[in-house]
Amino acid sequence: MTETIASPVQGLSEEEAQRRRRQGLGNEAQVKTGRTYFQIVRENLFTFFNIVLLSLAAALLILGSPRDALFTGAIALLNAVIATVQEVRAKRKLDAIALLTRPRARVIREGVVREVDPAEVVLGDILAAGPGDQVVADGVIVGGGVAEFDESLLTGESNPVPKQAGDPVYSGSFVLSGEALYEAQKVGLESFVNKLAASARQFTRELTPLQREVNLFVRILLVLVVYFGVAIAANFLIMRNAPLLQSIQAASVVFGLAPASLFLMIVVAYALGAVRIADKGALVQQANAVESLCHVDVLCLDKTGTLTTNRMHLQRIEPLRGHREGEVRRLLGTYVRSLGAANATTEAIAAACEGEAAPPRAVAPFSSARKWSGLTFDAPSLRGTFVLGAPEILQPALDHSDDAWQTEAHVWALAGHRVLLFAAAEEPLPTFGEVGEPRLPPRLTPLALLVFVDELRPEARTTLEGFRQAGVAIKIISGDNPHTVAAVARQVGFGEDGVPLKLISGPELELLDEAAFKLAVVETDIFGRITPEQKQRIVCALREQGHYVGMTGDGVNDVLALKQANLGIAMQSGAQATRNVAGLVLLNDSFEALPQALMEGQRIMHGMEDTLRLYLTRIFTLAILINSLALLSAGFPYTPAQNSMIAIFSLTIPAFFLTLWAPTGAVPRGSLVRKLVNFVLPATIVTSFFSLSVYLYFLLTTENWPYAQLILTYASIVKGLLLVIFVQPPTEFWAGGDRLSGDWRPTMLATGLLVVLLSSPYNPILRGFFGLSPLRSLMDGLVIAGFTLVWIFTLRLVWKWRIVDRYLDVNLADWESSNRE
Predict the structure, then answer these.
(1) Rounded-to-integer distance, Cα 482 and Cα 476, Å
(2) Is 302 a catalytic residue?
C-alpha cells in the first residue's frame, strides 16, 4: 500500500534499496521460532519410554509372543502418531494465522510512504512511526518530529521516553504518542531486538502449572518403575525364579507405570485447544494461553475497541462564549490536520470539519496519560495556542469566567456520549513546558464542546452474557468519563441483573491509600479517566488479591496492563505493541470469539481433570497389585496384551469422550493434587483391595495362574468402566467422589463398552483381536459380579463417610470443594 506525502524527506530510491539488499544490508533475520516437522516427528516418536516399549515389543516378538508384542508396541506408536498428527496440524494452522499479526513498517522511498514487511527495510531507509507503531530497526530520529517512546520491552522501565532529532531509537520499542521519522542504522541480526531474539526466541517447552504438577507424578512413578524393574531383573538374573519370556512380559507391564503419555496428553490437548480456539477466531500466541483461559475469573475490558468498534462520529459541536459554529469547525479542521498523528477522535473530527493543515510552532501530542493534546500557531492567518482534551482534565487551566457549560457536558456524558472540550489561549507558546512532561497553558478560554457517539460492537451484548455464564467477573476500564462508560456498558446489557454499577474515576483513585485502593478495585465495576499506569496498578491489585486476571486492549495505552495480567488479549487491528505482548489475539477483531475461547479452555481442563482421575487411579492400583503379589509370591497380575486391553477400555476410549463431552464452568483454583486426591486416594485403596481379593480367590480355587490373570483382566475393565460413571455421575447415587453432572453420555459409553467386552469372547473377530477367552462357567461370572457389586457400595461408602479422610486426620473433600466454590 502506498500514499504520497508532502515532505522534503525523499528517502532512498527503489534501485538503491534493491542494491543494498543484494549486498546483504537488508533487515532479514532468520530467527528460529519453532520446530521443524522432522523435529516434531523425531521428538514424539523417539522418547525414552517409547524406545523402551518398542524394544520390549521386539523382544517379545523374537521370543514368540506376537500378541503381547503387538499391544506393547501399539501403545508407543499410538501415542506418537496421535501427538505428531495433532501437533503438525496445530503448527500448520497457527503458522498460517500468525502471518496475519506480523508487524508492518512504513518506509519512505522516493518521497512515497510504503507499508512493507520489516524484512524489506534496508540500511539507510527512512521510516515513519506513529502511535502504536513498533520500531523495526535501530536508528536515529531525523527531521522535526517529536514523539514519546515506550522502551519497556527492552529496559523494563515503563516511563515514556521523549525523542527528537538526533536521539537514538531501538528495535523492539514502540511509539506512545506523536509522529517521528528515523533512519535505519542497524538492521537484521545487528539490531538490538534480533540480538535478543537469537537466544530468547528459540523454541522452548515452558511448562505450565498443570504440566509441572503432572511432571511431579511422572517423577514419582518413574521411581516405582525403576524399583520394580530392578526387582524383575534380580528375579531373573540372580534368583532364577522366572523364565526370560515371563520376565520381559512383566517388564513390559511395569513400564506401563511410567505415564509418558500422561504428560504428552496435556501437550496434545493444549495444541488441539489452540487449533479449536483459532477456529473460533482467536490466535493463541503463548503456550499456556489455553490453561490461562480456564483460570480467568476477572476480565478487565477496555471500552474503546472492545465494547465499541473504535470508530466514532462527531454528533454535535456546541460553541461556547459566543463563538460561531462555522469558525469553530474551521479551527478544529485545521487543528486535527496539523496534529500529525491520527486516532479515532481526530478522524471523526476531520470527517465533520473542513480545514487545511498549517505548520505548528509547538506540539504536545495526545497521550493517554495526559488525556489532551495541544498545538501552537504563530502565523498571521492563525495565531494562538489550542488544546483539545477531557473537560475535567482541562478544567484547572481554564479562566472560569463562565462555567455553565460543565452542566451540559455532564448531561451528555450521562447519556453515554464522549465529550471533549476545545479551548484556546490568545498568545502562542514557544513550547508546552521545558524538557519532560508537557504542561497545560494557563487561562484557557473554552471554545466549544464536542459530543461524540461510539459505534457499539453488535456482538457485545451476547459476549458479556457469555462471560457471565462462564462465571467470569467483568470490570470495564477506560480513559473516558466513568458516567459515559457506564452508559455505554448499560446499552450492551452490563448491570442488567439489578445491582447498581459502582463507578470511580482515576483522579479519585489517586487520592486513596494502598488499602483503600485495593478495596475500591475489588468493589468497582466501571473505571473512568484511568491512565495507563493506573490500568497496570488495577491489574496488579487484582492479582495480589488472588484473582486470575485477563486484560483486553487494542491501544498503546493498554500495553502496561496487558503485560501485568495473567492473560493479555489483543485485537488484530490494534497497535503492534499490544499484539506483541498479548498471549491471545482476536482475529478479525471478533470480540465474540473470546467467551467461546474461554469456555473451550474450561472444557479442555475439566476433561483433563476427569481423565487424570481415571489415569492416576489405574496407575496407582497397578503399582499396588504388582508389589502385593510380589510379596505374596503369587505371580504377576497381567500379561502385556491384557494390560493394553485394560488401558484401551478403561482409559484411552473414555478419556477421549470425557474430554469431548466435558462441561464448561469456572475451573477450580488451587493445587491439582488437592483437586484429584479426594477421588484418587479412596478409589485406589478400595480398588486395589478388591482386585487383589478377586485375583487371589481364583488363583487359590483354580490353581491356574493364567486363568486368574484373565479373571482379573475382566474385573479390572469392569471397575474401570464403572469409575467413568463415578467421574461423571448421572444421579446422586453415583456422586460419591465427584460432583453430580447429570450427563448420561459417559454412562451410556461405559455401558456400551461393557457390552463389547462381555460379547468379545463369543465373537470370533473380537476374540481374535482382543484375545480374551470366555469364562469357564456362569458361576465365575457371578462371582466377579458379586465382587464388583460389593466394590461399588464399599467405594461409595468410603467417599460418603470420608473414611480415608478421618484415618489420615485431614478433610480431602474440603481441599477440593474449597477450590471449586
Answers:
(1) 9
(2) yes
444-484 residue pLDDT tens: 999 999 999 888 887 888 888 878 777 788 999 988 888 88
Read off the pLDDT band of 29 (50, 70, 90).
low
Q: Considering only residues 251 and 394, tell me which one the structure prediction assigns the higher pLDDT.
A: 394
Residues in contact with 267: Cβ distance below 8 Å, sequence separation at least 6, in sequence order: 83, 87, 205, 211
In the chain, what's the furthest Cα-to-Cα distance? 113
Phi, psi of 642 (to 5 degrees): -65, -40
Average pLDDT over residues 220-231: 68
Q: Dihedral through CA 152, CA 154, CA 155, CA 159, nearest 10?
A: -20
Under a CB-based contact definition with an 8 Å cutoff, are residues 8 and 111 in contact? no
- Residue 725 gets which letter from DSSP? H
CA 487/CA 171 separation, integer angstroms: 41
Closest CA to 463 of 634, 592, 271, 371: 592
Among residues 133, 150, 297, 302, which one is catalytic?
302
Place of cell 506483541: 580
CA distance 490 to 136: 41
Q: What's the pLDDT at 249?
A: 56
DSSP strands (E only) in 123-275? 126-129, 138-150, 161-163, 168-169, 174-186
The pTM of this model reads 0.64
Beta bridge partners of 375: 363, 386
597-607: pLDDT as tens digits: 777 777 778 88
Identity of residue 186: K
Rounded to a whole number, what is the distance in angstroms from the first to the last CA of the chain? 53
Strands (E), 370-494: 372-379, 382-389, 418-425, 445-456, 473-477
pLDDT in tens, 359-380: 888 888 887 778 899 999 998 8
Q: What domains, with CATH codes, occur in the chain?
A: 2-30+102-200 (2.70.150.10), 44-86+206-275+598-820 (1.20.1110.10), 286-307+457-597 (3.40.50.1000), 311-455 (3.40.1110.10)
